[in-house]
Every structure is written in C-alpha cells, then in structure tokens.
Amino acid sequence: MAIDWFEKIKEYYLGGFYDIKEVQRFVELKKITVSQSEEILNSKEEAE
Asked: Record's Pfam families (predicted)?
C-alpha cells in the first residue's frame, strides 16, 4: 500500500507536528506539489 503523502503531511501539519518549512521541504523532495502545499497551509487557516 502506497503512502498518501498529501493526507499524511496535512494530518501532521494540522496536528502541530510539522511547520511551514517542513511542508515546503516535502515539495522540494517531490512528495507533494506546490498547489498541494498551499492547500495544506490554507487548511489550518480554515480550521481556526
């Protein structure tokens, strides 16, 4: 079973385990796209 990087990173970011720099690092590593990283970062603003 493959890892769903988008969902895993989003879960960890919303849980406070990853910060903005760490999310952006996953883009550099090509685990998620730039648009996915923006969606993850915006999801925290929506949750507040």
From this structure: Phage_XkdX
